Amino acid sequence: MFIFTDQVKDIASIKGAEFIRKYLxxxxxxxxLEWYNSELSTLKKTNFKYxxxxxxxxxxxxWIEILTNRFKETPSVALEKLKIE
Length: 85
Known about the structure:
Elements: H1 2-15, H2 17-23, H3 30-38, H4 42-50, H5 60-71, H6 75-84
Helix pairs in contact: 1-2, 1-5
C-alpha cells in the first residue's frame, strides 16, 4: 500500500497534482479497481478529481488518505506477516 502511495506522491511532484487527480483511477488494479468502480459514488469520484479547497497539494492528499484508510493492513495482519517472515 505505502509503495503505491509513495509512487503517487513522486508522480505528483513530477507531473503535477492535476495529473494525479484526473488519471490515478486508471492505475488502480484488482481490489482497488473493484473498490473504485463498485463502492465509490459518482459524487465521491468527482470529488477526487476536482478536490482543491483546504488541501496543500491540490487533492493528492485526499487520494492518499482514502486509499490508505481503505487498504492498509490491520495491525494484527501485519504482525502475523512479521511472525511468518
